[in-house]
Amino acid sequence: MARREKPAEREDAATMLEKMATLSRVIDEASRVHFRLGALSERIHRDGQSSSGRRAILRNVIELGPQTVPELARMRPVSRQFIQTLVNALVKAGWVSLEPNPAHRRSGLVTATPQGRRVFAEMMAKEAPAATWLSDGFSVADLKIVAGLLETLRERVDQFGDVDG
């Protein structure tokens, strides 16, 4: 287990207060962006079939390959049961199938079907104008920096419970 240094060992009190206020702003802005992107996605996909949860599961199995329900659940802060509900809806829609898993008899592999791949391509096409507009004014380097910082912040959040403190 990593040892977490006490803030006083690293920074003076004024710097630490400023850092905490700025971190609070980052958290608030990340939350606002998350919810606004969700609302934008709902407006783009007015059909109601492609909720953000369904889209995320479909994207994961297309981009990462077949996954078990527990693997999909570990990628997000939700229960395995919630993911199973989404997967069941995707199976019913014909977007994914549950294939035998040679590594585990009871936990099948969630796999995108050809119909699911077509639906996902249609979703991406619907989202393309918004993605183009949102990325305007940012360089690829800017977006990589933001993505990297958010990834690092997420990893630190995930690790916090694993740190002695």
Description:
The N and C termini lie close together (10 Å). The protein is mostly helical. The protein has 2 domains: 9-44; 49-160, Arc Repressor Mutant, subunit A (Orthogonal Bundle), CATH 1.10.10. The longest helix is centred in the N-terminal third of the chain and has 32 residues, at 13-44. It has 7 helices and 2 strands, in the order H-H-H-H-H-E-E-H-H.
Characteristics of this structure?
2 domains; 68% helix; 165 residues; Arc Repressor Mutant, subunit A; globular; 7 helices; two-stranded antiparallel ribbon; 2 strands; mainly alpha; single chain
Q: Which helices and strands, and how do they pair?
A:
Layout: H1 7-10, H2 13-44, H3 52-64, H4 69-74, H5 80-93, E1 96-99, E2 109-112, H6 114-135, H7 140-160
Antiparallel strand pairs: 1-2
Portion in beta strands? under 5%
Order of helices and strands: HHHHHEEHH
CATH T-level fold name of the largest domain: Arc Repressor Mutant, subunit A
Q: Which structural class matches the secondary elements?
A: mainly alpha
Poorly predicted runs are none
Mean pLDDT across all residues, rounded? Answer: 89
User: Can you identify the CATH superfamily of the largest domain?
Assistant: Winged helix-like DNA-binding domain superfamily/Winged helix DNA-binding domain
Give a count of the beta strands, DSSP E runs of length 2 or more.
2
Radius of gyration: 20 Å
Please report the first level of CATH classification, the CATH class of the largest domain: Mainly Alpha
Integer count of domains: 2
Briefly say what this structure is.
68% of the residues lie in helices and 5% in strands. The chain has 165 residues and is mainly alpha-helical. It has 2 domains: 9-44; 49-160, Arc Repressor Mutant, subunit A.
